[in-house]
Write a structure and sequence with these properties.
Number of helices: 25
InterPro entries: ACT-like_dom_sf, ACT_dom, AHAS_small-like_ACT, D-2-hydroxyacid_DH, D-isomer_2_OHA_DH_cat_dom, D-isomer_DH_CS, D-isomer_DH_CS1, D-isomer_DH_NAD-bd
Number of strands: 24
Strand content: 15-25%
Family: Belongs to the D-isomer specific 2-hydroxyacid dehydrogenase family.
Protein name: D-3-phosphoglycerate dehydrogenase
CATH class of the largest domain: Alpha Beta
Strand order of the largest sheet: 16-15-14-17-18-19-20
Keywords: Amino-acid biosynthesis, Coiled coil, NAD, Oxidoreductase, Serine biosynthesis
Function: Catalyzes the reversible oxidation of 3-phospho-D-glycerate to 3-phosphonooxypyruvate, the first step of the phosphorylated L-serine biosynthesis pathway. Also catalyzes the reversible oxidation of 2-hydroxyglutarate to 2-oxoglutarate.
Structural class: alpha/beta
Bound molecules: nicotinamide-adenine-dinucleotide, (2R)-2-hydroxypentanedioic acid
Largest sheet: 7 strands, parallel
CATH topology of the largest domain: Rossmann fold
Amino acid sequence: METAQKNYIFDFDSTLTSVEALDVLAEITLANNPKKEEIINEIQEITNLGVDGEISFTESLEKRIKLLNAHQSNLEELIEKLRQQLSSSIESNKEFFEKFSDDIYVVSCGFKEFIDPIVKDYNIPSNRVYANTFLFDEDGYIIGFDEENPLSQHNGKIQCLKDMNLDGEIQVIGDGYSDYVTRKAGVADKFFAFTENVEREKAVKKADHVTPNLDEFLFVNDLPRNISYPKNRIKILLLENIHSDAFDRLADDGFSVEILSHSLSEDDLIEKIKDIHVLGIRSKTQVTPKVIKAAKKLLTIGAFCIGTKQIDLETCKEHGIVVFNAPYSNTRSVVELAIGEIIMLMRSVFPRSTEIHNGQWQKTAKGSREVRGKKLGIVGYGNIGKQLSVLAEAMGMNVYYYDIEDRLALGNAQKCSSLEELLSISDVVSLHVDDNAANRNFFGKAQFDQMKDGALLINLARGFVVDIDALKVALESKKVAGAAIDVYPQEPRANGAFETPLQGLNNVILTPHVGGSTEEAQRDIADFVPNKIMAYVNSGNTVDAVNFPNIRLPRQTNAHRFLHIHKNVPGIMAKVNKVLAKYELNVTGQYLSTDSKVGYVIVDVDKEYNKKVTSALKKIENTIKFRILY
Ligand SMILES: NC(=O)c1ccc[n+]([C@@H]2O[C@H](COP(=O)([O-])OP(=O)(O)OC[C@H]3O[C@@H](n4cnc5c(N)ncnc54)[C@H](O)[C@@H]3O)[C@@H](O)[C@H]2O)c1
Ligand SMILES: O=C(O)CC[C@@H](O)C(=O)O
């Protein structure tokens, strides 16, 4: 079947390059001019007025050339600078410019003197560049332009395209007025608003299609491209006030990111998740089997925290959804809060402070003790427990710990063989067990009874670990002299009203699950988790995934990468290889990692292959998910 001829008409400034060339020329010519900033601002204003169609293009050109005061010798430097500032999606898609060279034109209101040498590198010869030309005086100064050229006139591109008299469909790709008017005038069949460098409201409104980069344009036209799926089509939803650095990092990589300050209910999440490829949450969002079932496009979930029990990890795995977390980023923050709270509780600082807030002066040493020499009992000697052990010891505390696993003591910390033993000797008990469901109501009446009279309790782990009613009784009876609680059996999804039976009790510090909420921790998490997400989405790496076989993949060079996630049943690898053999693929690398439930096989193949292989791989029985990356 013969395919219809298409002509691709590219604008130059802010489309092929990320800048306006005359602005760059101004930077060069005005380098030593004391009024440089003023003049450059003026030039930019004039450029924008012209691009938006507020003043005639000829007028804008005349004014700018006068202000520029440029010389022929400046052009060489300009060309060098422009070469460094090509739009990145143009640079990464050279193959398209090579394969479709006969159908590509540059039609620009810029100047051939600098456009020709730049686009030549992209296989576009001078005779397919339609642009203005400068006029020079005998000393080589630019004094004007060829006024006969239609491109120097208002609506010049319309006239130029008419004169070009091209056969077939005409697609214009550009960012401004001169581009979109060609569509209205009927000389272009489609206008693509290119917004990689600048997003002009009017251009976006008039566009048949908004293309945030060349990848999107090539994808919708099914043209050869450097990337399998445009990143702007990958939708990321970040909930629960995740640090804005995460948004910046993911958006800078080209993804479409939406950020919400609160968590979503199951129903709202089910609705929202249908189109989402990547979900980012903290501790409040429950990712239930119903949510996962609705998440048809979901590739990965980032828990921007330590805990992952809010996510049904097994169901995620069965659906080929890879989950990451940040296991260490907020550890130090929790430890520092625990240390602060131990001191505050030991000194009864909060009751003393409340008295003064209520207008009372109560200077007393009663119920106020140093931490030095006191016994700290750490329950759960993991990442947080261990770090707390070291800092507490540095303050002169004697550290004891209890863990269900065999954990090596740090410093002079002493291991207890049972929880009872630890509780019976500790002046302060600090809970740092993990968020395992088995730890529900782990600490109740029996444990309070086993504590020393007047000991203190700290819970910065999970709310369901402590029986709050039993704690209330222990505090009221003075069995426990004080407590610091950061986590609660039920926590609200968003900021607002909150009630707990512990409100109003003496020497009880209540914080709203902020143990890990420091600027430093949140920034670190906003670096760590997006990196994991990008490594998976962009290359298939699952290193540090919490529910998936971990695999570190080599860099993919000059190859297409097939990612095949399947149920781990006998014979599946043989079937995958049979398909690859049937279509005679040249396999350049194959990697496999499995656990008892799923298998994850990655195959790197030569770029040229029979495309039918992909549907054959998808059709293999027990396939869960299949993706191609390039
Ligand atoms: N408040 C906050 O903002 C905040 C911030 C970060 C972490 N946390 C929570 O802190 C807790 C500890 O985090 P971590 O990074 O140290 O986890 P971790 O997995 O490194 O350590 C947990 C330790 O607890 C032990 N453990 C589990 N159940 C136990 C039990 N019943 N008795 C004794 N030991 C037990 C484990 O063997 C492990 O050594 C987690 O619950 C985490 O969700 C809270
Ligand atoms: O930031 C959060 O919402 C959770 C903090 C903490 O409980 C964690 O699991 O890291």
